[in-house]
Write a structure and sequence with these properties.
The protein is mainly alpha-helical. Helix 1 runs antiparallel to helix 2 and helix 5 packs antiparallel against helix 6.
């Protein structure tokens, strides 16, 4: 009983840290929350978190962990960016993520956002040779990234709520 309460308390605290990580780029977010739930479930031998619930949490974790990528691309597409700009955005996100992590010291997530935004702007500017359509597509990416934070936060809250519900249910 003491072990279960201690394990739950530590897991809950780490899940809250992961939820904060959705907003604060220096802290891991939804992916970290999924790992915490996985470790808890394995330690408890899937007694409280059953495999079906864990599968649902995995789907939520994947959606939340990749929301930056697909919501940013969706924002670019809605704002009129070309397919080439969307592809450039993905490449810029990957390059910016690695650059931010390895060289700039700002971290992978801010680097990915900056790389994606710059790549869309440059691709659209090179295509149209005008600032206005390039800026419109860039704003679309930034709105997409902002909305992805909201989506990630909601997914994180749902994961936390499902975890607490499953543990309390016993």
């Amino acid at each position: 009983m003491v072990w279960s309460a201690l394990a739950f308390g530590i897991a809950f605290a780490l899940l809250v840290v992961g939820l904060l990580g959705v907003i604060l780029p220096a802290i891991p977010g939804v992916g970290f929350m999924w790992v915490v739930i996985l470790v808890y479930a394995v330690l408890e031998r899937f007694a409280t978190i059953d495999p079906y619930t864990f599968a649902a949490l995995t789907v939520l974790g994947l959606a939340g962990s990749t929301a930056d990528l697909w919501m940013g691309q969706l924002g670019a597409k809605v704002s009129g960016a070309s397919i080439w700009s969307t592809l450039a955005s993905m490449g810029g996100a990957l390059l910016g993520g690695w650059t931010g992590l390895l060289f700039a010291g700002i971290g992978a997530v801010p680097g990915a956002v900056i790389g994606s935004v710059l790549a869309v702007f440059l691709a659209e500017y090179l295509k149209h040779r005008e600032w206005k359509p390039a800026w419109r597509a860039t704003l679309g990416v930034m709105v997409g990234f902002t909305l992805s934070t909201v989506v990630q936060f909601c997914i994180g809250v749902a994961m936390l709520a499902i975890f607490v519900w499953q543990v309390m249910r016993g």
